[in-house]
Write a structure and sequence with these properties.
The chain has 605 residues and is an alpha/beta fold. The protein folds into three domains: 288 residues, Rossmann fold; 142 residues, Rossmann fold (3-Layer(aba) Sandwich); 132 residues, ANL, C-terminal domain (GMP Synthetase, Chain A, domain 3, 2-Layer Sandwich). It is built from 20 helices and 26 strands. The strands form seven sheets. A five-stranded parallel beta sheet has the order 4-3-5-6-7, with helices on both faces. A hairpin with a 5-residue loop joins β22 and β23. α2 crosses α6. The longest helix is centred in the middle third of the chain and has 22 residues. The protein is globular, with a radius of gyration of 25 Å.
Length: 605
């Protein structure tokens, strides 16, 4: 099965996928419970989704109502999503890391009639602000917990709602399927609130047509079928994972396994042996750092074999990528490199990986080339929540590192006079919910989405993104500086974990740097530099001098006005929980600059 054909809505897709999968033992979903991977068949998926949906219907949930979900990735997220949409209602996914204030804002702004939460932690978060949200009529908790301690009306466990649905079905046997048939492609499917880097969240209105068009266009250019296994770890509340790691996968009848968390990814990869996985560049940066640290501990002879193998493979794949003939001697060298090094590295993904799809941020060219060399292909894509999300993506046999690929079928892209990337097509949002001003700023009168990104197309039709329009710095010397390419270049250093360039309306550029503490510890230990704890390392003169020397290599590639004059090492990383990163791990530049304003000012004294 390549993909379910001819569906216009998510409920219609669900129906057809169920028809394909019913009666089969192959699981639709997998989740780890008590140390064992447990499969959920298509029959179980349909039964639980239908009964849960009917349980919501017994609460009065109907077409066009909005129901929120706040949960980590788990099967109940899927039951909730498909159940809500099957009733013709609209779901409102929230990030699990959302604060109580954010939850309150989104629930009020979206006019949600109820919310589904995963556990006690999220339940307490909602109850804390519930009195300020009169539109919330019910709360459902996915975990089986004792609700009597809360003394709350209209508070139910997931299994209680399913049981209410079974009772409801006896008197309304066709309610779910009839509701599914009423859903139209122009109906609102979901309200996804973008965290953004500043200001209040904006509710992106995506229709069934928006998401379905993206799914079907992706199927035209990327082969996904029912022999594939996906490992899912990016949050389902983010449109990238929802479209690519869930709807795209699901419509092909694949098995989707939910990772235990980012810290368990390495273990889960080996256990599940996935063929496809969606990810963000941060995952590849971590994998690369881990590999390189391990290599550096090896004897010199093994390090040389590693370097030789990687270089041979890079040369081999470059010729193959460009369609050039590969000399026999190089082929023989490549076979030897595979046997000595490459196959062992490829095994870290489980041994069956066909490709990763990377999104959310720019993937460094060097990372793409390195992972291709060890047999792991990364297809980078580009898009926004507002575009459902894919605008461009690399193909399995037509890709270029340093570019997020060519335009998706059915989507149009043009470059404005000021260099901004504009997109148009069936995947573009209806607008921001109850926010006419922001909608008019994002969508022009002809329906083109103004992405806020700066880019160009190369001669072969690959999009090259140079920066965010609003991120362009202008130094007091009148020079424009694009920070992202410079930041990505410095992030190639094994000693750097996070890097934020500073310089807008300043005389020169500086940087705030979160070091890779493991790498610093290894350097300090190797050079017998005493320290009490890792955080003390950032203050040591020897460490700062070593980094200054390291950065000299990068600085040579930059114009004089692009070079870093000063930098400050931070003793703790930027985090989502700390508010410095968005949920897709992008740096909130303004937050960082405000939080570390004293350190920044010190660099400019």
């Amino acid at each position: 099965m390549a993909a379910v054909a001819d569906f216009k809505t998510i409920p219609e897709m669900f129906k057809k996928v169920y028809e394909f999968g019913k009666g089969k033992t192959r699981p639709a979903l997998k989740v780890k419970k008590s140390g064992e991977w447990v499969g959920i068949t298509y029959d179980e998926l349909w039964e639980k989704t239908e009964n849960f949906a009917l349980g919501l219907a017994s609460f009065g949930v109907k077409r066009f109502d909005k129901v929120a979900i706040i949960s980590e990735n788990r099967p109940e997220w899927v039951f909730s999503d498909l159940g809500i949409l099957g009733l013709g209602a609209i779901d409102v996914p929230l990030y699990p890391i959302s604060t109580a204030d954010t939850v309150q804002f989104i629930l009020k702004n979206s006019e949600s009639v109820g919310i589904i939460v995963s556990n006690k932690f999220h339940l307490n978060k909602v109850l804390k602000v519930k009195k300020n949200i009169p539109n919330i009529n019910f709360i459902v908790v996915m975990n089986e917990i004792d609700l009597t301690e809360y003394n709350e009306e209209n508070l139910f466990t997931f299994s209680e709602v399913i049981e209410k649905g079974r009772i409801f079905k006896k008197e309304n046997p066709k309610h779910f399927t009839d509701s599914m048939d009423l859903v139209e492609e122009e109906d609102l499917c979901t309200l996804i609130y973008t965290s953004g880097t500043t200001g209040e969240p904006k509710g992106v209105m995506l229709t069934h047509k928006n998401l379905v068009s993206n799914v079907q266009a992706a199927h035209q250019i990327i082969r996904v079928d029912d022999t594939d296994v996906f490992l899912s770890f990016l949050p389902l509340c983010h449109v990238f994972e929802r479209m690519a790691g869930y709807y795209l996968a699901f419509s092909a009848g694949v098995t989707i396994a939910y990772a235990e968390g980012i810290e368990k990814i390495a273990t889960n990869l080996v256990e599940i042996k996935p063929t496809i996985m969606t990810a963000v560049p941060r995952l590849f940066e971590r994998m690369y750092s881990k590999i390189m640290r391990k290599v550096e501990k090896e004897p010199e002879k093994k390090r040389k074999i590693f370097d030789w193998s990687i270089n041979v493979s890079k040369e081999y794949h470059k010729l193959k990528r460009n369609g050039e003939s590969i000399p026999l001697t190089l082929t023989l060298k490549y076979k030897t490199a595979k046997k000595l090094v490459l196959d062992k590295l490829y095994a870290i993904t489980g041994g069956n990986m066909r490709f990763f799809v990377s999104g959310g941020a720019a993937l460094a060219r060097e990372l793409g080339e390195f992972f291709e060399a060890i047999g792991i292909k990364i297809l980078e894509g580009y898009g926004l929540t507002e575009s459902s999300p894919v605008i461009t993506v690399n193909r399995e046999h037509d890709y270029k590192f340093g570019s997020p690929g060519k335009v998706l079928p059915g989507v149009e892209v043009k470059i404005a006079k000021d260099g901004e990337i504009l997109a148009y097509g069936p995947n573009i949002m209806k607008g921001y919910f109850k926010n006419k001003k922001e909608t008019e700023a994002a969508l022009d009168s002809e329906g083109w989405l103004h992405t806020g990104d700066i880019g160009v197309f190369d001669a072969e039709g690959f999009l090259i993104i140079t920066d965010r329009k609003k991120n362009l710095f202008k130094t007091t010397g009148g020079k424009y500086v694009a920070p992202t390419p410079i930041e990505n270049m410095f992030l190639a250093s094994k000693y750097i974990e996070q890097f934020v360039l500073i310089g807008d309306r300043r005389m020169f550029l500086t940087a705030l740097i979160v070091p890779d503490f493991e790498a610093l510890k290894e350097f300090a230990d190797a050079h017998r530099i005493p320290y009490k704890d890792p955080q003390e390392l950032v203050k040591l003169k020897q460490i700062n001098e070593m980094l200054e020397k390291e950065f000299g290599e990068f600085q040579r590639k930059l114009a004089n006005y692009e070079r870093i004059r000063k930098f400050t090492l931070l003793d703790k990383p930027f985090t989502v929980e700390g508010g410095e990163l968005t949920p897709k791990l992008s740096v909130k530049r303004k937050v960082v600059e405000q939080r570390y304003s004293n350190l920044i000012d010190e660099m400019y004294k």
